[in-house]
Each structure stands twice: as structure tokens, then as C-alpha cells.
Amino acid sequence: MKKSHLTALAIVFLGLVVLWYYEQMPEKTNVKGLYVSVSKDFDRDSIKSIEAIVLSHPEERLELVRQKGGWKVRLTKKGQRFWARAKKTKVERLLSLLAGLQGEPRAKGKKYLSTFGLDKGEGLKITLKNGSKEVLTVTVGSKGPDWGSSFLRVGSSDTVYLVSRDILSVFDIWSKRPEKGLDLEPWVDLDVLSVFPSGIKMCSLDAGEKSWSLSRITKDGKAKGNPDTWRFKKGGQVTEKTSKQVMEYLSKLIPLRAKDVVPPSEGEKWGGRGSNKTPESFSCLLKSGPLRQVEIGGCLKGSKRCLVKANGFAYEVDYSWVQDVENPFEKEKKVDATGSKKTGKSVKKD
Question: Which of 26, 46, 178, 268 has the lowest tally of Cβ within 10 angstroms?
Fold first, then answer.
């Protein structure tokens, strides 16, 4: 055989090898033959409640219920069961991960379930409901080989699927598989006032002698004079403030994030503010949107925490926030947790 013929055959053979290798690349793999539908897609808005529990640690159960404008989570604190506002984005992420699941069948039969952390009494069981109707139930076992995936089974089926979604991470589970009870705190939304100074049209405090109001100076919907001017009213006096002064002050108040959420009944123990022990009311009207209001209750003796209520939920906030609300545009005053001013005067002893 001539040398030119051998060279031509070698080139053809090399080309076939390159073509075969190219077709075997991951991005060229026919995934249709590997992945199947694990769960049907569903309308996220149709889900009214979610329950989740680590089967080996049933003492901490996650219960989420849809409410107007978001979700609430059931907590147990100080021996009381109550509802707190849940993080809407976290719940929506969970629903997004569970909708329309596709996966690769990895095993079938009860004898294989323990290999994937899905035997009886193992795994994280998640149930989605529309009223009393069960929409989806999945049990998540071990994380997949790349830790960005999960092994799970649907309902009572003994078929194990590998899905390319890290469902355990939504529950803040970073171990290979669920090993302890669920932590409910990451689901609690502690944002009391999720607004920013630049979006404010007016703010006020309704607190008897401490009352004040702050509003943009406008006329016929347009700024009057200096567009950066605000009108501040307190104690019968009216003064003007610049936008810089107002923004610096309001940035101390909003957005407001609580330290903790407490049972609503705790307010009875904390009492109210001021000499008459009645709640105070801090309100902000947005340029576009509804009025946001926070009820300020009492402050716990011996603590630097005060109670506030918003949207039907009770929270603990720093006492310094209450001081800033009650003393606008003033240097920090020495006020104790009961609302009484400390004069700093010495008392003459007999």
C-alpha cells in the first residue's frame, strides 16, 4: 500500500476518533433519555400550607400557612405557641424548587432506601397542601454526589430519584443528610418596617406630649420653594429642616429590623410607654403605597429591649430605636427604660 494511502487512512481514522469524543462530551449527552418527570408542576399560588419534618427528629416541625400578602410560621417560645411572619422569599424559593421536578431514577425497592437516607424514619418529609387536599409529598434523603443535587422519593413510592436541586439548603441543612431537628428561626421575618428614607412622604409620632410630625413642603403636588425642605412640627412649634437633616434622622429609624419575635401576649407584661403607660404610634406614609404603622409598647425592666407591634405581630427592638423616635433632631437624652427623663441632678441627703 502506498504511503499516501496510509496517510489518508490515518487522517480519516483520527477524524472519526475526534468525532466520537466530541459526541461523548457532557453537553452533547441526550438528557431526554436520562431524566424523567418526578412531580407535576403546580400553581404556586394554590399552595395554602406547607409542613416539613425531619423524621428522625419530630420535635421540631415547620408549619407554614399562607396569609394575605405573605406567609406565617408557627413558633413555640416561653411555653407559648403562636404565629410569626415568615420570610416570603424563602417560602417562594422552596415552592420553586419543588415544582415540576425532573430526575434520574437511581434505585427501586425498599432494600435500597437506606443507601440514600430514605429508609423508614429517615429523611426530610415535605408536604404541600391546598386546603385539605395534598398537592405533593416528597421525602429528601442524602445530598447528591455534587452537593448541588438531592436524592428523594415521592409519596410512599420506593423509587429513588436524583434531582439537580439542593432542597436541603433551603432548610439550612448543610450536612450530607438531615441529622437533627429543623431550625425554625431562619424562616422568621424580623423586618418590621421595610422602607427607606428616600421613599417617605411623611412620618409622625402619636405619643401625647412627645408627638411630632415631619412632612415634605409641597403645593399642588409640586415642591414649594426649596424642594429639599421639610416641615417639622412638635409642641406647637413649626420649623423647617433640610433634606440632608431629615435623611440623616430617618436613617436611624428605617428600615427597622427587630432583634426577636415574641408571643403577642407578652405585651401585657411589658406595659406601655410614658407616664400613662399607653402605647405610642409611629407612622410613615410612603410616596407610593400604604401607610406603615408601628405600635410602641413598654420596655422590659433591666433590659435594653422594647416591645413593638406591626401587622398583628409582636417584636423586640433595641431601646435606642425608641429613644431616637421620641427625641427627633436632638442629641441623645438620658432616658431610662420606663420613659422617664434622667435629670442628672444630685439629690441632697439629710
Answer: 26
Asked if 149 and 143 touch (Cβ cutoff 8 Å), the reply is yes
Q: Where are the domains of the chain?
A: 36-187, 191-326
Q: Is the pLDDT of residue 183 over 90?
A: yes
Chain centroid offset of residue 136 CA: 23
pLDDT at 17 over 60: no
Cβ atoms 168, 124 nearer than 8 A: yes
- Calculate mean pLDDT across residues 176-198: 94
CB neighbour burial string for 136-159, b if at least 16 within 10 angstroms, e if fewer:
bbbbbbbbbeeeebbbbbeeeeeb
**β-strand pairing of 218-219 with 212-216:** unpaired
- d(CA 312, CA 307) in angstroms, rounded, equals 13
Residues 6+ positions from 325 with CB-CB distance below 8 Å: 205, 253, 280, 282, 296
Contact 324, 280 (CB under 8 A): no
From CA 177, how far away is CA 315, in angstroms rounded? 33
Among 258, 257, 261, which residue's Cα sits nearest to residue 75? 261
Can you list the positions of beta strands (E) in 68-171?
70-77, 80-85, 102-108, 124-130, 133-143, 150-154, 159-163
User: Across the chain, how many H-helices and E-strands are there?
Assistant: 5, 23
Helices (H), 87-128: 88-98
Q: How many CA atoms lie within 13 A of 338 on its CB side?
A: 7
CA atoms within 13 A on the CB side of 47: 25
Confidence (pLDDT) at 79: 85
Where is pLDDT greater, at 84 or 78? 84
Asked if 282 and 213 count as a contact pair (C-beta separation under 8 A), the reply is: no
